[in-house]
Amino acid sequence: MRLFLRGGLALVILSAACSENAVAPKSPANPQATAAELAALGTMFDAAPLQSLSSVIIEVPTPVAAPMRALALAGSTNPLRSSSRLRTYADRIEGARVFTKLLPEMSVTGVVALLPPVFAGKTFEWNFTALQYDTTARTGAPSNGVRFILYAIDPLTGNPAGPAPGTEVGYIDLMDETGTGNPKVHVIVAGVGGTPVYVDYTVRIGGQSPTSVTINTTGYITDGASSPDSLRFNGAITAALTSNSISVTEDVSFDVNSHDVHVRNWQRVSFSATPTDTTISLRLSFRFEYGAEVVTLDGSLDADNSGNVSGEFTSRVDGGLYASCTVTGTQNSYTLSCQGADADGLSADDDLTLDALADAAGNVSSAFEGMLGPAIGVLGGQ
Questions:
Q1: Which terminus of the chain is more solvent-facing, meaning fewer CB atoms within 10 Å of its CB: N or C?
Q2: The model's pTM
Q3: Is 178 in contact with 164 (CB distance < 8 Å)?
Q4: Longest dimension (CA), the chain
């Protein structure tokens, strides 16, 4: 179980503690097969164009670009990032902060152009000297939006890898489809020349007020193979402010019909808005349905800005308790204790399955939020 918190799980330690378990302890019928299907979810996001989206998020040509850059810099100094096991949790918190920073700009009632008219129909390419995206004379961008060329990424910098002109891997189109209704952005991520289409989704602002905003999204992701699997998703993200607190809630469903896999991912990040109270909490519930089997992961993780953390979580199979864990730690270390629900404890295959469950929850959340980044940037800049 020492790997149970790696990467995506350190921050997906999750939703409210469950009530008394009335179902007998249970393990997956085939832990190895379950682990393989969980791992397959992560491969849906391995295509090079999807890995390149991070370089676009803070380059969207709207007034929101500046605060997004500032928040990205602030996030890099979050104490939780000093622990590799808690880094994804820190990233999730910073993502929530970005979203709430954009809330005042999103919370409007008028219908206005989401993109400055001067940028409509423009293509942005990476300037390898200035290290930023600039408009060019390149054609092909949609008339109601903008196009960013995507490049192979340097893993050390997160920027397109040089030297110029770099290696193109595709493009992302951001289109304003608001019309006379609520603000709406249509996003397409495609390979070089427009094929294959890796991502196609819309993001629309639903309910909005001076202190809250909800965005709804629906679309699909593919792995770009010759016979691609399609991961279809729909859901909502809501941010809410009070005089002393902020919360961001994400509730999304995913379906990979070719594998008979269905996922429900719910999470809420809450933190104080006062300088004297720095408590941060994550609540998450992850449901993975594979064939006739349902595996869940639920629990909670609480932290402060010094990196002190505590939490507990449980995994169940078809309602029967599979494993339970507790974690305490600081920014430099943590202690994790896990137990299997039945007398046999946790086998090596069980450990692999629980690790895969943790990774899947983290991968799905991170990829989903990463894809939405450019569209949220556009909506926040109206």
A1: N
A2: 0.76
A3: no
A4: 68
